[in-house]
From TrEMBL:
Positions in coiled-coil regions: none
Pfam families, A to Z: MIF (PF01187)
Tree of life domain: Eukaryota
Membership in a protein family: Belongs to the MIF family.
Gene3D superfamilies in alphabetical order: Macrophage Migration Inhibitory Factor
Protein name: Macrophage migration inhibitory factor homolog
Membrane spanning stretches: none
GO cellular component: extracellular space
Gene Ontology molecular-function annotations: phenylpyruvate tautomerase activity
Amino acid sequence: MPCLNISTNVSLEGIDTSSVLSEASSTVAKIIGKPENYVMIVLKGSVPMSFGGNEQPAAYGELVSIGGLNPDVNKKLSGAIATILETKLSVPKSRFFLKFYDTKARIQLWMEWLHFLSYLHLLALEIPNFYMLGRTYKDLVLLTRRIILSFI
């Protein structure tokens, strides 16, 4: 579920926020390639914000997605969302910053780490059996090396 969270120092009073939300939602869905019914847009206005040493209209956004992000997609999204903010909220494109989080990569790394820890746990359980079965320290080192190399 992609979630775009935008904060701006521009007051949203008198602005048609529904059009900002719907345009941002369809843009994110189209560029990332995910169904729009999974896209969430959060828009906060009147947030105290300074950018470049002044408080002229500016915006900050974070986009979190499980997959679908890459440098090309990020560039397209930055440009498209900046255009929406410039058109609807009068925030110049040069005063908008968008940060991307691809949670797929983080989840995958976490799962690999857990997998590695489970192997270490099994190895710890096997150490007493190695010596009881007459195996040597060298056999234990070779097994450990095989386990570690399986993650490289």
